[in-house]
Amino acid sequence: MAEEEKRQIARTLKQEYDEKQARLRNLEQQKRAVEASLRRAAFTAAQLDEMPEDVRTYRAVGKAYFLQPKSAIMGHLEEAVRGSDGELKKLSSSREALAKAADSLRGELTEVVASLRRG
Questions:
Q1: Which sequence ranges form a coiled-coil region, renumbered to this chain (predicted)?
Q2: What residues contact residue 49 under an 8 Å CB cut-off, 6+ apart?
């Protein structure tokens, strides 16, 4: 294989590797956002749990607040927690697959660069 071909392969592998690393960073950001949402929902549920059943409670929807029974809000919070758990599992499995692919690309890139240095 000609040296210029190896350089082109190295550039292509480096570009793919950089794209995978950017996607990994994006997945980590998404994971942190979901974890924050999960903590917020769990904290709100814990605070509401201590209150009596007939307390007047409001649920924020966008910039508006709607009066709802405590049980409805608790149900919504539990649903949010379940959804966040599922999302975290999906993000973790996606991250593992992407990390494996990035490691594979890094290995290939290392081999190509080493062959360029040798020859």
A1: 3-44
A2: 74
